[in-house]
Amino acid sequence: MDKSLMSVIGYSHNLWSSTMSFLRTVLNDSVIIHPPGFYIIGFQSFPYISVYIIFLAFVYVVTVVCNILLVYIIAVDRRLHTPKFLAVVNLAVIDIMLNTSTIPSMIKTFLFKDNFVPFNQCLLQMYFHYAFLALESYSLAVLAYDRFIAICFPLRQNLFNTLLIMSCIIGVTWMYCAGLLAYSTAIMTRLSFCNSVRVFSYFCDYAPVFRLACNDYSLQWSLASASLGHLIGPFTFIILSYFIIIVTVCRMKSVSSRMKALTTCIEHLILVAIFYIPIFSIFLFGLFIRAIDPDQRVLSLSLAVCIPPCINPIVYSLKTKEIKIRVLALIWRMKTNPWRPIPNQCVEAFNSVMKLSRLCMYVCGETKRNLFYCLSES
């Protein structure tokens, strides 16, 4: 009985192998094989995967809460309805969506041991992850544009950087990334998967998936290589912008003006370093050090992608004075009476230096306005 059963199993296996071999030989564009789904098998030799996934779950909660709080603070305060903070809101939304595209599925895969992902769901996750990863890079370039206009063209800021212009720039980046990534994901349906369906990554990653195909994937490989432009292009724009900003700052006569201009760039430079340095380091290590452990590479990539969306709102809350004052005011409201409106005196009390600077700017503005009025009357 056992021998007959083994012979049947062996015959079935040989039949399947010969069938797949035949399909690989005669496969063309008219014969496409799509599997029911893929199995995510990253972190095979990682001993503390459960602890790491729990840590990422905490990162996800912090990402969602902090970014929603940041969006809420900017939305309810009309004084923050400026092009700069519109770009900050754009970054906050992208941060939430970027971590949402991977961390919940990682919890299901590695914590609850359900590593099967249906084919269409795999493509959907692939699309959203890379679309928002590209948007993260472009959103940092948009913030660099805001700093570039504010420092290099302060007198023309209301002409070159309005809410309408910033909205159009953000809209163009969204449409560009959504369209390009839709095409990159759609061509994955042209591939046939008649071999393994085990994806060695922490999600349905683009390159590990198309490498499983048994027909030609040169187009997908070319698009994957070209997708580095989503990182290199915005990063180059940021570097050039700050080069011009530094030249402009060096030409300023007042030391206080130089410090004030550079201070407004600190939070953005921190975000740029947090996002680009880990990703570029991983690519360089993979390029020059071939013997890197696959699990270490997957771990590094997951950290490089998941940590910046968590840190971004914290950096803006601590380094941006306007956001800092509103956060402290919100904390004060929660500690005292959540239904009582916050007096303006309490908000101003959080930063006495800022209060004095605003008062000086107000007096100077009134003096200029009165002088202009007297000259026009005369």
Walkthrough of the structure:
This protein is mainly α and 378 residues long. The protein folds into two domains: 34-342, Rhodopsin 7-helix transmembrane proteins (Rhopdopsin 7-helix transmembrane proteins, Up-down Bundle); 348-378. It is built from 16 helices and three strands. It has a three-stranded mixed sheet with strand order 2-1-3. Helix 5 (119-152) runs parallel beside helix 10, helix 5 (119-152) crosses helix 12 (266-288) and helix 12 (266-288) packs antiparallel against helix 13 (294-319). The longest helix is centred in the middle third of the chain and has 34 residues, at 119-152. The radius of gyration is 27 Å and the shape is globular. 29% of the residues are buried. Mean pLDDT is 81; it is low at 5-20, 345-357 and 363-378.
Give the gist of this structure:
With 378 residues, the chain is mainly alpha-helical.
Feature tags:
single chain, 378 residues, mainly alpha, Rhopdopsin 7-helix transmembrane proteins, 2 domains, 3-stranded mixed beta sheet, disordered C terminus
Helix-strand layout with pairing:
Blueprint: H1 2-26, E1 37-40, H2 49-76, H3 83-100, H4 103-111, E2 116-118, H5 119-152, H6 157-160, H7 163-186, E3 198-199, H8 206-210, H9 218-226, H10 229-250, H11 255-263, H12 266-288, H13 294-319, H14 321-335, H15 344-348, H16 352-377
Parallel strand pairs: 1-3
Antiparallel strand pairs: 1-2
Helix pairs in contact: 2-3, 2-4, 2-13, 3-5, 3-7, 3-13, 5-7, 5-10, 5-12, 12-13, 13-14
